[in-house]
Write a structure and sequence with these properties.
The structure is a homodimer.
Chain A: H1 6-20, H2 28-35, H3 39-51, E1 55-57, E2 64-66, H4 75-82, H5 107-127, H6 131-144
Antiparallel strand pairs in A: 1-2
Helix pairs in contact in A: 1-3, 1-4, 1-6, 2-3, 4-5
Chain A binds a DNA duplex (30 and 30 nucleotides) through helix 3.
DNA sequence: AAAGTTGTAACAATGTCTGTTTCAACTTTC
DNA sequence: GAAAGTTGAAACAGACATTGTTACAACTTT
């Protein structure tokens, strides 16, 4: 299985908001054009980012802007904002291990902490990168084009 | 999204093969009983583990056994054996970023290496745990019950 | 030859992701 | 105050992946 493309779309969206936000109103329609993602999905993602306190949106007049400093938003924050698997974690467990089997009734005790550690390793790596770096890298590439 | 439960089922299956393999013939039916996973799925998982060189199975007579030493099988090996996302990676990218937009045509350059690093962090953590540890922990818990 | 097992294909049921349509609520502008 | 453009949100459809199920050929042992 794969992690939903809403995550990369969200990073793309936030980068656009920062880069184009100064000179124009960044609407869901504009973001849909840049990302290639349906405008309703864009609004959906913006809604999740708003709930996470990462962006602000304006109903009626339209447009979105960042609600935090660039270096206070990590890829992890974005990942968590659009992630739908909060409760159950990254790994899915087979659901009915047999309690009558010594292995079946203990497999969770043995595996759970290790799965959590692996998930934490992924998440900690995502925490290393801020949106400030993403935007800086993007601007640099654009300048060098 | 979540990682398929075939991974935890595979760990469960391999643990059973090691723990019960000495005293009995470990068939897909037995493994289905312990894991609660359908016997055909068990055979499917065993087939993937066999292709990865982790187990041997016997057609006709039935039963499975490990093909490698316990400490030469890591959770990563098992993960990769049953993983179906080899080609595209753990993260899914939104598919049609707009090449006419400066951000759209460069988002891959900025993000790809970071997504690969995060995936590597997860996988490296899984490499830290061998099946030997899983089996040892399981046996210890069973003894203490 | 009989019984039990694996390997595999085909299909169904379920769930998730993404897109689409639709419309009420809101803000700005005229 | 009306018009135009936008957001927020619900409802539904299509595509795809996962898991379970059925069925059966091939194989091994007794």
């Amino acid at each position: 299985m794969q992690i939903t493309s809403k995550f990369t779309a969200a990073v793309h969206i936030l980068t656009c908001i920062e880069i184009f936000g100064g000179e124009m109103r960044v609407t869901s329609d504009f973001l849909s054009g840049s990302t290639g993602v349906n405008a309703v999905i864009v609004r959906n993602v913006l809604g999740q980012l708003r709930e996470a306190g990462i962006v602000e949106t304006r109903q009626g007049s339209g447009g979105a802007n960042l609600a935090k400093a660039l270096d206070e938003i990590t890829l992890y924050d974005i990942y968590k904002a659009v992630d739908c698997t909060d409760d159950t974690g990254l790994f899915r467990f087979h659901e009915n291990p047999n309690a009558k089997c010594p292995v079946g009734r203990n497999i969770h005790k043995v595996m759970d902490s290790r799965l959590e550690a692996a998930q934490a390793a992924l998440e900690n790596d995502l925490k290393r990168t801020t949106l400030a770096k993403i935007v800086a890298d993007t601007k640099k590439i654009i300048e060098d084009e």
